From TrEMBL:
Gene Ontology annotations of biological process type: ATP synthesis coupled electron transport; electron transport coupled proton transport
A single cellular component GO annotation: endomembrane system
Protein name: NADH-quinone oxidoreductase subunit M
Superkingdom to which the source organism belongs: Bacteria
GO function terms (MF aspect): NADH dehydrogenase (ubiquinone) activity; NADH dehydrogenase activity; ubiquinone binding
Keyword Ribosomal protein listed: no
Organism, as annotated: Kribbella caucasensis
Membrane topology according to the record: Multi-pass membrane protein
Cell location: Endomembrane system; Membrane
Domain NADH:quinone oxidoreductase/Mrp antiporter transmembrane residue range list: 151-430
Keywords: Membrane, Transmembrane, Transmembrane helix
Keyword Membrane: yes
Ranges that cross the membrane: 6-23, 30-51, 102-122, 134-152, 158-176, 188-209, 229-246, 267-287, 299-320, 327-347, 353-375, 395-419, 439-459, 487-508
Family of this protein: Belongs to the complex I subunit 4 family.
Length: 514
C-alpha cells in the first residue's frame, strides 16, 4: 500500500471538510492560508513521488537521472506506489490506485496549479462564507483530479471523474462573473449538463468493456486487451472516445467551453483549462490504446479528423473574439486538437507529443488565464474593445508577461509550447503502421496551417491589446502593475515554460513508447 499516494488524495479532501465545519467567520479568515499550506504540501508530496519513482528498482541511492527509460507499450500501466483493496465485490469494483511515468507529471501539474490558485486567493478580501467555500471547492477538485490520474479501476476512474464536476459547477455558478448572474448560471448549467452527458456515454462504454473482458481493472485489461475491431469492442471504443472528447473538448463537442471560461473566476478558468481538459486526453491514452487497441485503430482516423477540424475551427474562432477570456478558451480548442491528433497517430512520436502538450498547455494557458484575470480585475471587464490598446504603457509588466505567454502558446521554439505540437505533426507524418498514412499526411498539412493561424491570432492580440499610442490611455490609471502575490504566483509558470522549452528531455525521456 502506498501511504504517500493515499495521502495526496485524502489530505485535500479532509481539509475541505474541516473548512466546512469550522465557524464561518474564522474559516473565511484562514481559508486561503490553510489552502495554500495544504496544497503546498500536496505539491511537495507529488514531487517526492516523482523522485521516488526515478530511484533504481534495487533500492534507494543515486537517482536514475535522465537515461532513456525502458520501452513501453502506449498507455499501458506499469504500476508504481500501488494500492489494491477489495471495495464492492458484487460489482467487481476495487479501490485500485497506482501511478507511472504518464500520470505522475500530470499529478505534479495538478498540485502546482491548485497551489498557485490558493496562493492567488490570498489577494481576495475575505467575505462571509465565500472564501471558505472557494478554497474548499478547489481542494475537492484537487482530490478528484489526482484520483482520476491514479485510478486503475474503471469504475473508480468514473467516480473520481465525476467528483470534479460539481465543485467546478459551483465555482462557476457562485464565484463567476458578478456583473452577469444569469450568464454565469447559464454557463455553469451548460458545463455540467454537457459533461454529465459525456460521462454517461463513457460509463456505457466501460460497461461494454466489462461485458467483454469480465473486469474493470486497467492493469488486467492492459495485459489482456479486448480483441476485435468490430461489434461490441468498436461500440465500447466509440462510447468511451465520445465521452472523453466532451471533456477535452474536441470539435463539435466544445460548445460548453467558451462560456464556462468567460464567466468563471480566474482560478476557475486556470483549473478548467489546466486540469479538467487533461482528464479527457489522459483517458484516451490510458484506456483506449491499451484496452481496446484494435477498435482504437478503427476509429483513429476519425479521431484524427475531428482533432484536425478542432485545430482549424478553434483558430478561426479566435479571430472573431472581442473578449480576451473567450479568445484564450477557443485557443484551447485548437491546442487540444493537436493533442487529439497526436493520440490518433498511435505512434511513439505522436503520443509523446500529446503527453508533452498536455503539460505545456496546462502551464501556458494557466498563465494566460491568470493574466486575463489580472487585466479584467483592473479594467472591470475582459472586453478588448473596452480595455483598449497600449497596455504596455499602462501595465508594462503584465503586458510583457502577456506577450511572453502568447509567444509560448503559439509555439515559439525554445518555449514549452513548441515541442508537443511539433511531435504531434511528426506523428502524423509517421503514424502507426496499421493506419492510413496518406490520410494522416493530409491531417499533418492542415494542422500545419493551424500553427500559422495560431501565430496570427496571438500576434493580432499582442498588436491590438499591448501596442498602440500611449497618449490615448493615461499611464496613471492603475496604482499597481504587478502585485507581489501575482509575481509569486506566476513565476513558477514562466520558469517551467522556459525550462521545458529548453530541456524537453526532462519529460520526453520517460515516455519511450514502442
Amino acid at each position: 500500500m502506498s501511504t504517500l499516494l493515499i495521502a495526496l488524495l485524502a489530505v485535500p479532501a479532509l481539509t475541505a471538510m474541516v473548512l466546512w465545519v469550522l465557524p464561518v467567520s474564522f474559516a473565511d479568515r484562514v481559508a486561503a492560508v490553510v489552502g495554500s499550506v495544504i496544497s503546498g504540501l500536496v505539491l511537495v508530496g507529488s514531487v517526492w513521488l516523482w523522485i521516488d519513482y526515478l530511484r533504481p528498482a534495487d533500492g534507494p541511492g543515486t537517482l536514475v537521472g535522465f537515461e532513456t527509460a525502458p520501452r513501453t507499450l502506449p498507455g499501458k500501466l506499469y504500476p508504481f506506489a500501488e494500492t489494491d483493496l477489495e471495495w464492492i465485490p458484487p460489482l467487481d469494483v476495487r479501490f485500485h490506485i497506482a501511478v507511472d511515468s504518464i500520470s505522475i507529471p500530470l499529478i505534479m501539474l495538478t498540485a502546482l496549479l491548485v497551489f498557485l490558485c490558493c496562493l492567488y486567493s490570498l489577494r481576495i478580501t475575505p467575505r462571509i462564507g465565500r472564501t471558505r467555500s472557494l478554497i474548499a471547492l478547489l481542494l475537492v477538485i484537487e482530490t478528484g483530479v489526482i484520483g482520476t490520474f491514479s485510478a486503475v479501476d474503471l469504475v473508480l476512474f468514473f467516480l473520481f471523474f465525476e467528483v470534479v464536476l460539481i465543485p467546478m459547477w459551483l465555482v462557476i455558478d457562485i464565484w463567476g462573473d458578478e456583473h452577469d448572474a444569469a450568464g454565469r448560471r447559464r454557463a455553469a448549467t451548460t458545463f455540467v449538463l454537457m459533461t454529465v452527458l459525456g460521462s454517461a456515454v463513457m460509463l456505457l462504454g466501460f460497461l461494454l468493456i466489462h461485458r467483454q473482458a469480465g473486469t474493470f481493472d486497467l492493469e488486467v485489461l492492459g495485459n489482456n486487451p479486448v480483441a476485435g475491431g468490430r461489434g461490441v469492442p468498436l461500440a465500447a471504443a466509440i462510447l468511451v472516445a465520445l465521452g472523453l472528447a466532451v471533456k477535452m473538448p474536441l470539435w463539435p463537442l466544445h460548445i460548453w467551453l467558451p462560456d464556462a471560461h468567460a464567466k468563471a473566476p480566474t482560478v476557475g478558468s486556470v483549473l478548467l483549462a489546466g486540469l479538467l481538459l487533461k482528464l479527457g486526453s489522459y483517458g484516451l491514452i490510458r484506456i483506449l490504446l491499451p484496452v481496446l487497441p484494435e477498435a482504437t485503430t478503427t476509429i483513429a482516423p476519425y479521431l484524427g479528423g475531428f482533432s484536425t477540424v478542432a485545430i482549424i475551427a478553434g483558430s478561426l474562432a479566435c479571430f472573431a473574439q472581442t473578449d480576451v477570456k473567450r479568445l484564450i478558451a477557443y485557443s484551447s480548442v485548437g491546442h487540444m486538437g493537436f493533442i487529439g491528433l497526436g493520440i490518433a497517430t498511435m505512434s511513439p512520436e505522436g503520443l509523446s507529443g500529446a503527453l508533452f502538450a498536455n503539460i505545456a498547455h496546462g502551464l501556458i494557458t494557466g498563465l494566460l488565464f491568470f493574466l486575463a484575470g489580472a487585466i479584467k480585475d483592473r479594467h472591470d471587464t475582459s472586453d478588448l474593445r473596452t480595455i483598449g490598446r497600449a497596455l504596455n504603457a499602462r501595465l508594462p509588466r503584465i503586458s510583457g508577461l502577456l506577450v511572453f505567454a502568447s509567444l509560448a502558446s503559439l509555439g515559439l521554439p525554445g518555449l514549452a509550447g513548441f515541442w508537443g505540437e511539433m511531435l504531434a505533426l511528426l506523428g502524423a507524418y509517421r503514424p502507426a503502421d496499421s493506419l492510413p498514412r496518406t490520410t494522416f499526411l493530409v491531417f499533418m498539412v492542415i494542422a500545419g496551417l493551424g500553427t500559422v493561424l495560431t501565430a496570427a491570432y496571438f500576434l493580432r492580440l499582442i498588436r491590438n491589446l499591448c501596442q498602440g499610442d500611449p497618449a490615448e490611455y493615461p499611464t496613471t490609471a492603475f496604482a499597481v502593475d504587478l502585485s507581489r502575490i501575482e509575481l509569486l504566483t506566476w513565476t513558477p509558470l514562466v520558469a517551467l515554460t522556459v525550462v521545458l522549452g529548453l530541456a524537453p528531455w526532462l519529460l520526453l525521456d520517460y515516455w519511450n513508447f514502442v
